[in-house]
């Protein structure tokens, strides 16, 4: 089948002109959004720990750690920047692979671009090529990979995509690119059982690091197979649980699809697990019609388009991180505060008495009649609020299914960037970052942008 080798050829020959303008706009929007998440995440305690770790490594200063004022090796920068990008669970998602693509791809691409003196256009193209490869491989995997086997999709697929992105920016040839992807495949991992801890964002950083390390080692002569994706003991079969996969479709899809448009990138409006977002949209639609007294609520039924709990594994959260992966807390916060934002996720907010009182009255289940079917086949969530007087308030929210940039406008991303950047950058510096991002596809060295982002 020669899938890994042919992916290497795809990555090597990809050009910015191969992507429609809509895809380029979406990619730039995703990069801006991810940098916003990095800047906000740079103040998290997990970032403090990782920064102390990489500082102790004593690596040569080759790439910037966003918002932290220092440089380290490209691999270390990718690790820290990836973890901080995913730290708040505020970063983008793409539903065809149920992953957080940019939190892995951009840290790898940014670090390698700064280290090698690449331009903004080269970084952008590396990001886009990595996105397409990760989606192409992800679509070939079995449904069990996403729902039953316990893998966090962002980790394994992110390692594949980041290796492709790093290989493109380093200008590796097809054979080297295939080997870099194969080497990254042997480092791919991430378990959903760690959701609600610092390890979930570590998955993104570790996948970004794996891509950088793989491309650099292969560039220097390290070897790997050229069939690690499709082989009898390869990535696709292993992560599919041995059945339900279709390796042969990978190359065909890369040749005939543009995943940036067909799958699209969904920018998050809320800093919590994406599986809770449609239900939150439905809840806020209800609240826009009139306030709901939490004391008057008898129970809330949430019907979702996947078999619960999947990522929302904390039905009774006891910490801020667990709250991000709790449908019950997210909806409780929406009713209590009329909003869900960065301030919603602290231990104090999750443990407050009124939230803990409301949480047990919220139940999540699959839309009746669709239990056991593939995820998101219905494309909507429904929230039914049962009041103690017998009134039932019902609202649905439907998933966007078209367009490259989904859920928000470019102006929304700009506003989110300014809000997140205010924690780490001056207003003047943030404005200059936005100016450089606007002309990202031009031939300016990425080092200027990296210097600003370092803070």
From TrEMBL:
Taxonomic superkingdom: Eukaryota
Domain MmgE/PrpD C-terminal: 270-431
Pfam families hit by this protein: MmgE_PrpD_C, MmgE_PrpD_N
Single GO MF descriptor: lyase activity
Gene3D superfamilies per UniProt: 2-methylcitrate dehydratase PrpD (1.10.4100.10)
Location of the MmgE/PrpD N-terminal domain: 5-246
Similarity field: Belongs to the PrpD family.
PANTHER family, sorted: 2-METHYLCITRATE DEHYDRATASE, 2-METHYLCITRATE DEHYDRATASE-RELATED
Protein name as it appears in the record: Uncharacterized protein YxeQ
